[in-house]
Each structure stands twice: as structure tokens, then as C-alpha cells.
Specification:
single chain, 660 residues, alpha/beta, Beta-Lactamase, Heat Shock Protein 90, Rossmann fold, 4 domains, 7-stranded mixed beta sheet, 18% strand, elongated, phosphorelay sensor kinase activity, EC 2.7.13.3, GAF, transferase
């Protein structure tokens, strides 16, 4: 060790403690600067500082009246302070044998008065000092000494918080990596299962449209039901990811309630054992059409009824729906699923709704299942502001009932148009897809639409074909060798400068994937396994020939009025929007993901004025809903949906404004 200055006995441990805080050579910090100002004010001195002492120097984290960032350790007063356990106060350095001839007393900083408090870590190491210095002699009173000690403790508390934040940040990064690893696993598993499942369901749909005898039709129906059931299991696992991130959206579309209930009943009849009677009872006052999420109701019922049928070997399973309340706008329904099966112990009633949990440990081995169904059912019911309850006794059966409110609908169900009536003419489509089964399926489906199809095995082949031929549309698989769908789309948009419509087709269907597709420049997204009618509707949409989805029109009348004919002002406002709003959307999404309600509320509120200038009423409404929900301190699936819609809308508006 250097002998030019005193060295504490625990010097090695002291230096290790100092390095633990990662404070040396960091940028200025308001919290430390405020503490230094406070010391200067309390003691009435022109010089104050917070410093840390390493092997060879005294480094100033914050200082007033010094003007340098560090000095050699051997010329510092604080080299002695860190040797003490309490405050060092020198009222007059001219009378002090140790300091009276010091260069900073006889000249330099002209130190006449010095008070230094050691900055002591919770485990007892003096890593630095908090000091007050004056050019005249003085004596601190008891209140000033106590205040200095308190400020020193505050400085150490700030250091501890900083260290804890670094540790938390490291843990957060580990957690994020774990989530990414899980999502990656789910994505790959989803892709591997959905790819063959896409072919099974797709070819079965095509086969069902051919001439079949009754026996063949019965077999095809069974294959379709099996495919749909397998898809439900895959979707259960994927829904976990969406539920956890709060981005599983609840739809609000008109649907036929009676037809949905009968469809689920017919779908599950094949699971009924011979000794079990399976019945569906519908309230006579049940309306035909309501507004809500048909798919999620299907999912809830299939899970609950499927469980009852699985756990009931004799007796009956009854499904019933009753109208409870009706207002001018809404109708509330109570759905029952009752069985005479194995039942559930009273002590297990709450835990059956937990993830990966079943009534008994032996249940999975005896009856199968993932243990996810009831957890997802509960989440889905509560996402729709409903409630679910259980009544059950061991060996006597169970009754699950849930209550949901739906909006009234004036819509009348219309018969579906034949798929062949596409009204799009003879389109030429490029498919980028590496799976042979999916290629064959897509070729059959696209041919049935009356379109021509070229196929590329990977992104590079797709780019090559696109550079040689004229196409109306690209269907893009996301997971391909050589160049994946994202890389291929980025190349088409940025290198080829092509605006050809691109539809993503993927078996992943995970949280954030749709958003990522839009970000790289794709126009739409169809998850596999796809329904023919969904694909055709999406093709119509991206080609702007579907009357239901007109291209956005931006109303500049308010901006024109504000600018009073000043085109430079109008241009400046437009450029500000293009520059500012996407950044705000990004900040909004980040704040939403970490559930920072105050930040979300503030950002959404600030965005509204900009959106209103360009008369973007729908986007402004989304921002209003987001702000209102942030004010309640609770985000819902509707918030996630509105954040996503706002993001996509802003991308569209910015693109149009840039073209203008």
C-alpha cells in the first residue's frame, strides 16, 4: 500500500465495498447535487462536497466551490476522516498541528474551517465523505452537526437505492430473458403443431366441399371435430401468453346466441358415453342475436362441458341458459353446466381455477388434460366483466355457472355468400412458404378463388420471383429458411421500394407478433390454420376492394383553419406530428406494459390534442378510453386492444402524411 497517506486496517474490504456501488466516474446526479447545496446552506459555507476515496484519489461526485473532479488522496483532508467513525470538525486549521502548514491552508483552497462526516456503508466501511469548508474559522452548533449526519445518511441511502435498482434491473433482465425463452418455446411449439394441423383442417374443409356419400360425410365431420378440438388445446397454451401480457382482446360483434349454443352441443355430443344423457335447455325468452365475443363464449363452454363429459361416466350432463335481466341496451344471461360425475372436494373448490391444477393429483393420469382449461375459463369470464362459480360435492357431481352481460343487437343474420363470388378478377399471387403440405393446401384454396399462384420455398426465392414477375399480392409465411418472412418483407419494402400488399400467414399466433408484422411493413395478418372465408376477406381488404374497409381519409380542415393559409406552418405541424406521435405511442406502450397508470394517463391525454388537430376522431377516442382506464388504476383487455389499435392507426396516418 502507498505509505504517503493513512490506510484503514480494512482497506481491501473498504475498496471492494466502494466498487460495489459503481459510483466512481459517474455523471452528475440531482439527488447528490441537492444534498451538497443543503450542506452549504445549513453550515453557511462557500465550499461543500460529496466525495469518494479509492486507492489513489479523492473523487468528487458533487461539489460547490472546488471546481475540479478529483485530487490525489495524499493531499486531501478526507484521507483522515475515513479513518474515523464520527464527524471530524476542525474549527481553525491555523491552530491545528496536522494542517497548519498544509498547502491548501496556506494557499490553494484557503481552508480555515473543515467539517467532514464519513459516508459509512450498512456493513461498516467508510467509502467517502460529506464535507463543509470555509475560509474563516467557525464552530457548528448541535443542530448543524445533527443535520450534517442526517444528510450523510441520506447520501448513503441514495447509494443503496441505486445499487438495489441495478440489482433489480439485472433480475428484470433475467426475468425478461426467461419470458423470451418461454415465448420462443411457445412460438416454435405452436408453429410445429399448427403447421400439420393447418394442412389437416384445410384439406378437410376442401374435401367437405366435394361430392360425398353419407358415410364419408360422417367421417369428414368427425375429422373436422377432432381437428377443432386439437386446435382448442393448442390455443389454450397460446392464450396463456396473451392473458399474461394483458393483450387478449374481447371482440364485440353480432352473433347468433342460440346457434352458437347448439353448435357447441352438437360438437361435443361425440364425447358422450353410452350411460350418460346429454341435454341442452334454452330459455324460451332467449334472443337470437346479441353483441359480444362468440369465439370466447365457445371456448368457455367447450372447456366446461368437455370437463363434465370427461368426468361423468353415468347419469347426466345438462347445459342450460337462462335470461336474468334486461335493460334498454343489455341482456344478462346465466349459463349452467351441471353433471353427476366424480365431483370435487370442498377444500379444492378455489384451487381448481388455478393454472396447471386439477381436483386430484391422479386426475391427469386417469382422465388426461393440461390443467389449463378452468384457469383460462375464469380469466375469459372475468375479462368480459362476468363472474364464475362452482357448486360441487365429491362423488355427487358438479355445477359450474357463469354470468355474462351482452349488448342487444338489431342485426339479422345473413346467409353467407359463396366463396367463388370474389369480384376481384384474375389475381396473380406469390406465396412464400417452405412447408410442402401448406403449399399444396394454399394452391388448392387459391385456385378455388380463381386466382393464379406462384410458390417460393424461401425469402430469397420470393425476392427473385418478385423481381422477375408482376404480382398483385404476396402471402408471406414468417418462419422460413434462408430469409424469414420479416427479413423478406423488410427487403421488399426498403431495398426494392415496393408497395405490393403483403399478408402474413403464420402458425405462431403469439402476443406481439401481429404488431411486429405491421412494423416491418406487412398489410395484414392471417393466423394458421386459416379459414377460406377469412383469407378471402383479408385479400379483399388489402386490395382496398372491400367496401367495409375504405382507406383512411385525413381531414385537414381544422389545420387549414389554424394556419390561415400559411403553408409553412401547416408543414411544420405535420412534421411535428410525424416526429412526435410515433415516439409518444412507443412511450405509451412501454408504460402500459409495466402498468405505469400515471404515465399512461399523462401520455394518452397529451396525444389527444395532436390527434384532434388532424381530426382523427377514432384515434382520439382510443386515447380517451386509454386515459379513462388508466385513471381507474386498472387496465383491461379493452385497454390492450385500444393501445394496439392506436399504434396501428398512427402507423397508417404517419405513412399517409409522409406521402402528402
Amino acid at each position: 500500500m502507498n505509505s504517503n497517506f493513512p490506510v484503514p486496517e480494512n482497506e481491501l474490504q473498504r475498496l471492494a465495498a466502494l466498487k460495489r456501488y459503481n459510483i466512481l466516474d459517474t455523471l452528475p446526479d440531482n439527488a447528490f447535487d441537492d444534498a451538497t447545496k443543503l450542506v452549504s446552506f445549513i453550515c453557511g459555507v462557500p465550499i461543500a462536497h460529496i466525495s469518494f476515496i479509492d486507492e489513489s484519489r479523492q473523487w468528487f461526485k458533487s461539489e460547490i466551490g472546488i471546481g475540479v473532479t478529483e485530487v490525489p488522496r495524499e493531499i486531501s483532508f478526507c484521507q483522515y476522516t475515513i479513518m474515523e467513525s464520527e464527524m471530524v470538525e476542525i474549527n481553525d486549521t491555523h491552530l491545528n498541528e496536522r494542517f497548519k502548514d498544509d498547502p491548501n491552508v496556506t494557499g490553494g483552497f484557503n481552508v480555515r474551517f473543515y467539517a467532514g462526516v464519513p459516508l459509512t456503508t450498512p456493513d461498516g466501511f467508510n467509502i467517502g465523505t460529506l464535507c463543509a469548508i470555509d475560509h474563516i474559522s467557525k464552530e457548528l452548533n448541535e443542530s448543524q452537526r445533527n443535520a450534517l449526519s442526517l444528510v450523510a445518511k441520506h447520501v448513503m441511502a441514495q447509494l443503496e437505492i441505486g445499487t438495489k435498482n441495478i440489482q433489480l434491473d439485472a433480475q428484470r433482465k433475467i426475468a425478461e430473458k426467461a419470458v423470451m425463452a418461454r415465448d420462443s418455446f411457445l412460438a416454435n411449439m405452436s408453429h410445429e403443431i399448427r403447421t400439420p394441423l393447418n394442412a389437416i383442417i384445410g384439406f378437410t374443409d376442401l374435401l367437405a366441399q366435394t361430392q360425398l356419400d353419407d358415410v364419408q360425410k360422417d367421417y369428414i365431420d368427425s375429422v373436422q371435430i377432432a381437428g377443432e378440438n386439437l386446435l382448442l388445446i393448442v390455443n389454450d397454451i397460446l392464450d396463456l401468453s396473451k392473458l399474461e401480457s394483458g393483450s387478449l382482446a374481447i371482440e364485440a360483434e353480432p352473433f347468433n346466441l342460440k346457434k352458437t349454443l347448439k353448435h357447441v352441443y352438437n360438437l361435443l355430443k361425440v364425447k358422450v358415453q353410452k350411460e350418460v344423457e346429454f341435454n341442452l335447455f334454452l330459455d324460451a325468452e332467449l334472443p337470437d342475436m346479441v353483441i359480444g365475443d362468440q369465439g370466447r363464449l365457445n371456448q368457455i363452454l367447450v372447456n366446461l362441458i368437455g370437463n363434465s363429459l370427461k368426468f361423468t361416466s353415468e347419469g347426466e350432463v345438462i347445459v342450460a341458459v337462462k335470461k336474468m335481466e334486461e335493460t334498454e341496451d343489455d341482456i344478462t344471461f346465466k349459463f349452467f353446466v351441471r353433471d353427476t360425475g366424480i365431483g370435487i372436494e370442498k377444500s379444492k373448490h378455489k384451487t381448481v381455477f388455478e393454472r396447471f391444477t386439477q381436483g386430484e393429483e391422479s386426475t391427469t393420469r386417469t382422465y388426461g388434460g393440461t390443467g389449463l382449461g378452468l384457469n383460462i375459463v375464469k380469466e375469459l369470464v372475468e375479462l368480459q366483466n362476468g363472474e364464475i362459480h362452482l357448486k360441487s360435492e365429491l362423488n355427487k357431481g358438479s355445477e359450474f355457472y357463469f354470468i355474462l352481460k351482452y349488448k342487444k343487437s338489431k342485426a339479422v343474420e345473413s346467409s353467407a355468400k359463396p366463396l367463388s363470388q370474389n369480384n376481384l378478377g384474375k389475381l396473380k399471387i406469390l406465396l412464400c412458404e417452405d412447408n410442402v403440405l401448406n403449399q399444396k393446401l394454399a394452391k388448392s384454396v387459391i385456385s378455388s378463388f380463381g386466382f393464379d399462384l406462384d410458390i417460393a420455398q424461401n425469402g430469397d426465392e420470393g425476392i427473385e420471383l418478385l423481381s422477375q414477375n408482376e404480382y398483385d399480392l404476396v402471402l408471406m409465411d414468417l418462419q422460413m429458411p434462408v430469409k424469414d418472412g420479416y427479413q423478406t418483407t423488410e427487403y421488399i419494402r426498403n431495398e426494392m421500394n415496393s408497395n405490393i400488399p403483403i399478408i402474413a400467414m403464420t402458425a405462431h399466433s403469439l402476443v406481439g407478433e401481429q404488431e411486429r408484422c405491421y412494423k416491418v411493413g406487412m398489410n395484414a395478418y392471417v393466423p394458421k390454420p386459416f379459414k377460406q372465408v377469412t383469407l378471402l376477406k383479408t385479400i379483399k381488404t388489402v386490395l382496398n376492394q372491400d367496401n367495409d374497409t375504405p382507406k383512411r381519409y385525413i381531414d385537414m380542415s381544422f389545420l387549414d383553419e389554424m394556419s390561415s393559409g400559411d403553408q409553412e406552418f401547416k408543414k411544420e405541424m405535420t412534421n411535428l406530428f410525424i416526429e412526435k406521435i410515433p415516439v409518444q405511442v412507443e412511450q405509451l406502450e412501454k408504460a402500459f406494459k409495466v402498468e405505469n397508470h400515471d404515465a399512461v394517463k399523462k401520455i394518452a391525454h397529451n396525444m389527444k390534442s395532436s390527434l384532434d388537430i388532424f381530426m382523427l376522431e377514432d384515434l382520439s377516442e382510443y386515447a380517451t378510453v386509454i386515459e379513462e382506464q388508466a385513471s381507474t388504476g386498472k387496465f383491461t383487455s379493452e385497454t390492450a386492444d385500444k393501445v394496439n389499435l392506436l399504434h396501428c392507426g398512427v402507423i397508417e396516418v404517419v405513412k399517409i402524411l409522409k406521402e402528402l
